[in-house]
Amino acid sequence: MKRILIAGLMALLLVAAPAAASVVIFDFTFAGNGATATGNITLDMALLINPGRNVFDISADQIYSTGATPYGANIAGLVAALSVTVSGATRGNGTFTLVDFDGVLLDTSVGVDLKQQLVGQTLVKVGPNGEDLLWGSTGYTKLKSDPVQSYAGDFQLFSPLTSDAPTGGNPFQATALGGEIMSLTSFAPATVPEPTTYLLLCLSLGVVGFARRQLRIDVEN
Question: How far apart are CA 38 and CA 145, in angstroms?
């Protein structure tokens, strides 16, 4: 019976571990015109398309559309959590969470490594004339592979008119309620494991300890 219990706990860990590993927290910072917006976003990497356009449209109003063409398919469940703190703006300072926004846009490009700082990464020969580009550039440079619609990446947050949260406009920018335009200066995976990882680690240690204790008891008996 004890061995069955141990086997069951181990099986639970094997099932839960991949799910926890797919959830990653990214820290980000927008800054400019005296204002700063710092925060973090929790993404389900199992749903994220890389490279590709990732749209999390809470209101499902196609705010990312280009004319009648959606900028990207709405990926339900992509964003698990979001927190942004604005400071230095004439209006709209404070901390905002996922309920204050109605959408997130994350556009990755060929060659982007999501395991390290994204801003400033070189995208080799992806420009319209085959030149190198930088992820995080606020320009409107198109990609050679998609000259109609695709920029060299993007990260924007969108908020409804009823919210005081910052909102996007141009690629890699956020505008505070006071009108201060901030550009993305950092977007990188957080170094601190999320609570789920801590929980799984503690559970794993508990299972190992329990198994060793039961093995010792069986040997002694």
Answer: 32
Q: Is 66 exposed, middle or buried (0-12, 13-18, 19+ CB in 10 A)?
A: exposed
| Predicted local confidence at residue 214, as pLDDT | 57
Is-contact 125 140, C-beta < 8 A? Answer: no
Residue with tokens 């927190």: 83
Which of 216, 67, 78 shows the shortest CA–CA distance to 155? 78
Chain centroid to Cα 101, Å, comes to 14
Separation of alpha carbons 48 and 58, rounded Å = 16
Q: Tokens standing for 60?
A: 């499902």
Q: Where along the chain do its domains lie?
A: 26-194
Q: What pTM value is reported for the model?
A: 0.76
The least confident of 23-27, 60-64, 103-107, 168-172 is: 60-64
